[in-house]
Design brief:
The protein has 13 helices and 18 strands. α2 crosses α9 and α4 packs across α6.
């Protein structure tokens, strides 16, 4: 109701056809504002418990039973939000029947969402996949869904005793030509380094041919396939960060020529996208960990490989470390030898209201800044000068997020280690895109 009053949509006596923003649309703006606050402010922290599978080091915290970070946002939800922003009719369900207008059509929007989704995955590395590929004696070609290789480990046949698992470190053309002339070399043994090809499709060579049969345990970032009007698809991006892909899609739509062109909103959406990707690269997911309620060390996957070398080759036992990559994949080291209880405090998905009487899971001091952002996002559909006059509302919201982060830092002297250390792999070792400095406070870069 408060947002409706701000946008002059609170007059319930007004005939529905005369209302510029309906109730479901306003509810969507409130939910987006809550998710953006949780994403930028790292606001809602909670822990959940899952159990290990003996012999399995890998766990995706978005799919474990009881997770607080499930991936539930679909392309259909993003489509409906974009249709509101573009003043287009709302799609009701699948199969999608709306064809579009002279400005935008269904194919335009679905293509923009698909491109934005894959662009977000590629530049942030937010969702990591783990799998096995056969360790063949020649160049290994990966599926066309693979965009980047994040980590590689050789796992020799477990029925032999001569060779053990070994992390294969990345190298490049200059290093291999300078220090390993004739790369790839064909003697048999334990692979030490790999070189990814610079041309598509994604493939790699190792320096030494594996001496025995086995697999490569590989972490990758993948695209998610084609979107279709026949059925909905899950967005492989954390729920509270789905707005980043939305603005990337809208930047493409507003950048089209002729009737769709809107330079002001194109520039605004581009800045929201860039701000979001920079923030996303530094966002925490797992804050700490306990195994059987005993605290363990949480660190980045790359630090685990460097300082607990070849942890996959060590004797199975009681895990003492949690290493993680992206915002979803964790590994337990040593590999569990039996069932253990794992407790992980995380920045959970923001609880969202879906009915008028639902309680907002925020503090009273957070209420008006979140309402400011919801009003600002709602005015995006208006465009022009009326939209630009709401930029100070967005700046006020960002200032509140910065203030909340400063409060967290005041309460925890080691907050940068608690929140930041597990993300060293994304920021320093495996950067996908160099983040800007302090994007939350960089109001000029966000259109504020």
């Amino acid at each position: 109701m408060a947002l409706a009053e701000r946008l002059y949509e609170g007059r319930r006596s007004m005939p529905a056809p005369m209302q510029f923003m309906n109730e479901p649309e306003l509810d969507g703006y409130i939910r987006e504002a809550l998710q953006v606050f949780n994403a930028i402010g790292n606001f809602y922290r909670e822990e959940f418990v899952f159990t290990t599978d003996p012999g399995n080091p890998w766990y995706d915290i978005t799919t474990e039973l009881g997770t607080l970070r499930p991936l539930t946002t679909t392309d259909f939800q993003i489509l409906r939000q974009i249709e509101y922003h573009l003043l287009e009719p709302q799609s009701d369900g699948y199969p999608l029947e709306w064809d579009g207008s002279l400005q935008f059509n269904l194919a335009n929007i679905l293509n923009a969402i698909q491109t934005a989704r894959d662009k977000t995955l590629s530049e942030t590395g937010c969702t990591v996949h783990q799998g096995l590929v056969p360790a063949l004696p020649e160049r290994i070609f990966l599926e066309d869904s693979v965009m980047d290789i994040r980590r590689l480990c050789w796992l020799p046949n477990r029925f032999q005793r001569t060779y053990t698992a070994n992390v294969v470190l990345p190298s490049d053309l200059w290093a291999t030509q300078s220090f390993q002339a004739g790369f790839p070399q064909r003697e048999s043994g334990t692979p030490l380094i790999y070189r990814r090809t610079s041309e598509p499709p994604v493939s790699f060579d190792v320096d030494i041919t594996p001496a025995v049969a086995g697999d490569y345990d590989i972490l990758t970032t993948n695209n998610a396939g084609h979107l279709t009007k026949e059925h909905s698809s899950l967005l492989p991006i954390p729920n509270d960060w789905a707005w980043v892909a939305k603005y990337a899609a809208m930047e493409q739509l507003f950048g089209r020529e002729s009737l769709a062109k809107d330079a002001l909103r194109e520039d605004y959406c581009d800045k929201r996208w860039k701000q979001g990707t920079a923030l996303m690269q530094a966002a925490p997911a797992v804050l700490a960990g306990r195994i059987n309620n005993v605290p363990v060390i949480v660190d980045s996957m790359s630090n685990g490989d460097f300082y607990f070398a070849n942890w996959q080759a060590k004797k199975r036992g009681h895990p003492r470390y949690i290493f993680y990559s992206g915002l979803n994949m964790i590994a337990l080291a040593p590999i569990p030898d039996k069932i253990y209880s794992v407790t992980v405090p995380v920045v959970r998905n923001m609880p969202l209201p879906y009915h008028d009487g639902d309680y907002l899971q925020i503090g009273r001091d957070d209420y008006f800044p979140i309402l400011d952002l919801a009003q600002h996002v709602g005015m995006l559909k208006v465009g022009g000068a009326e939209f630009t006059t709401t930029f100070p509302l967005f700046a006020n919201f960002l200032r509140h997020c910065a203030l909340y982060n400063s409060k967290l830092k005041a309460m925890s002297l080691w907050l940068e280690w608690l929140d930041g250390r597990p993300q060293e792999e994304m920021i320093k070792v495996n950067p996908a895109f160099s983040p800007v400095a302090n994007p939350v406070t960089a109001e000029k870069s966000s259109g504020g």
